[in-house]
């Protein structure tokens, strides 16, 4: 960051973005009063009862304001760029240490316990990652399109993301995907955003349909991209696509042939024996010995070398990228089962299955979402009134003061109140982006976009959870949900940007 010392600065009132500060305070206040609303029946007492969650949240708010004041008025904004590397390394050490030394909360080993206070390092890892990204990407000569610079940038994001996954906190790790929007602003090709979307689609298709359908879609998309770029289909794609379409129907064809071979009586006997050919007294048809997955693997093993060779011969960067993406997508398809069954926790698998319609479980893992949607829907246009929400009062929604705090807003404040809260977040994100774009320093701009991305991802995922559009993955609503770690983390994240923005305004 450019040293601006020695210049006469402007006053405090003219350099601090008070609109951002006021928006922050309003969201914190909304969170506090709704935390009390969500627990007032189960934790009788006043809003300042320090034995209850609302009283504890008041303490977290006061400490958060102290943190904000120190960042704004005590610490020099110039220290963040110089200390970004040691801060990042220290936070990574904390993330690793908490796996072995932390306490387990709801299946996740991501919390340090200090008496009655619990601290989650993942909440401050977003700050350290944002600072280091801003430091690296603001260096003179940095180009995100250069392989070396891209690898370094990707590593900064992926290292904390993978460590958090090892803590069984896949929800917190998902937030890091939001940095892709900042990278796009700084020159990353939109192709990578498209690839992330295709990866998500392939994963969903593999779980809900089959690997055959997922690979078919990948081949079709890769072919379409190459066709749109070159204006004509390649012969090798014209051969591969019909074959992959054919193989996509292999499971269904084999099932039809098997049913015909066995016959109606055989199918009835097989059903009675719970699918056992030996118990049903039926010889296993030859079609059952043909494993569709192995057939698909064999085909892709033959097709990929042809595709790679032809793309290499054409010396076309776009075709090469499309082919590389295709191969990566196929690898993802065949590893989806491992990710789903061995990486994700049991409760996370069940929530994804319910979300994708693979299972119905309104009284089990789908209970939280169903009750949340009932609460929000029952609020109507103007809500039932503060402290008058029945879903809230009778405790139908678990974790209503933390992950599902938004349903309290929806039930008691209605559509109008929910819209006001969302608009406050929109204003907060818009104001940060506006100030970032206006910044003369690349460090401030990049850090500002990182802040906006983190807030957006938390907002999108949390509200998506409460209305059934996202799986329940334990993401707090920024500044509103109960909890000291989350509040302190977002306070520091936002006010560091306000301090950086203020430092520039002092001299310009």
Report on the structure:
The chain has about 500 residues and is mostly helical. It folds into 2 domains: about 10-195 and about 355-505, no CATH class; about 210-345. The protein has helices spanning about 10-15, 20-40, 55-75, 80-100, 120-135, 145-165, 170-175, 180-185, 190-210, 210-230, 235-250, 250-270, 275-280, 290-315, 315-345, 345-355, 365-380, 390-395, 405-440, 440-465, 485-505, and strands at about 105, 110-115, 115-120. A 3-stranded antiparallel sheet has the order 1-2-3, covered by helices on one side. A hairpin with a 2-residue loop joins strand 1 and strand 2.
Major β-sheet annotation:
3 strands, antiparallel
Query: Can you write the helix and strand succession as a string?
Result: HHHHEEEHHHHHHHHHHHHHHHHH
Biggest sheet, spatial arrangement of strands = 1-2-3
Number of domains: 2
Structural class per helix/strand content?
mainly alpha
N-end to C-end Cα span: 15 Å
- Number of helical segments? 21
How much beta, percentage-wise?
under 5%
Q: Write down the Rg.
A: 27 Å
Mean pLDDT: 75
**Total count of strands:** 3
Bulk shape: globular
Poorly predicted ranges (pLDDT <50, ≥5 residues)?
Answer: 1-7
**Helix percentage range:** 55-70%
